């Protein structure tokens, strides 16, 4: 599988974060929107912007709160006409710096089972603020967009005459 670079990055040095925290705006420039649409698998992205609030909880723990808004255009799964939708999400994550992952005596990587209350482990204080925004953005895109008021009606197939399986077998035997 080919790795595709994310179309948007916004690096922030968490070591510069004061106790008061910081508020950072992350927004896609107009020239970034086509790449973002291609990366997300939609027809177009008209807007992608977020306000990220960062707070230092300790030397190695940080609080990440963000509100983002995106406007995407997709093709209706029924009519193929363009459907514009607005996506608004709030994201909260706790980040913890872990310069080394825990290893057992055999040198194997040991990871704990996923727990929602466990902070997200980051490997560097240079943190990409856009990464969690893009994750949530892709997850929020409607996989089956429909234009308002449009419903799918399956095609009507002509009814075949009802016959028993034994009648079909007899017809096959009579044909020989």
Question: Could you please describe the fold and organization of this structure?
Answer:
The chain is α+β, with helices and mostly antiparallel strands. It has one domain (11-155). The chain has helices at 33-40, 130-140, 165-175, and strands spanning 11-13, 22-27, 44-56, 61-75, 82-97, 120-122, 126-128. The mean pLDDT is 85.
Main features:
alpha+beta, 7 strands, five-stranded mixed β-sheet, 176 residues, 34% strand
Topology:
Elements: E1 11-13, E2 22-27, H1 33-40, E3 44-56, E4 61-75, E5 82-97, E6 120-122, E7 126-128, H2 130-140, H3 165-175
Parallel strand pairs: 5-6
Antiparallel strand pairs: 1-7, 2-3, 3-4, 4-5
What's a concise summary of this model?
This protein has 176 residues and is of the alpha+beta class. It has three helices and seven strands.
The dominant shape is elongated
Given as residue ranges, the uncertain stretches (5+ residues, pLDDT < 50) are none
Protein structure class: alpha+beta
Q: What's the SSE pattern?
A: EEHEEEEEHH
In quaternary terms, these chains amount to single chain
Number of domains: 1
Query: In this structure, how is the largest beta sheet organized?
Result: 5 strands, mixed
Question: Count the strands?
Answer: 7
């Amino acid at each position: 599988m080919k790795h595709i670079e994310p179309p948007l990055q916004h690096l922030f040095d968490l070591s510069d974060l004061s106790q008061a925290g910081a508020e950072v705006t992350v927004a896609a420039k107009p020239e970034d929107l086509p790449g973002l649409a291609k990366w997300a698998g939609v027809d177009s992205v008209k807007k992608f912007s977020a306000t990220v609030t960062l707070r230092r909880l300790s030397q190695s723990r940080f609080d990440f709160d963000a509100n983002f808004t995106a406007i995407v255009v997709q093709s209706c799964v029924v009519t193929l006409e363009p459907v514009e939708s607005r996506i608004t999400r709030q994201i909260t994550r706790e980040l913890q710096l872990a310069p080394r992952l825990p290893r057992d005596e055999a040198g194997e990587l040991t990871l704990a089972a996923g727990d929602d209350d466990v902070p997200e482990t980051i490997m560097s204080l240079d943190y990409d603020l856009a990464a969690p925004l893009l994750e949530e953005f892709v997850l929020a895109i409607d996989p089956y967009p429909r234009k308002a008021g449009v419903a799918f009606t399956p095609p009507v197939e002509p009814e075949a005459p009802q016959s028993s399986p034994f009648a079909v077998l007899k017809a096959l035997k009579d044909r020989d």
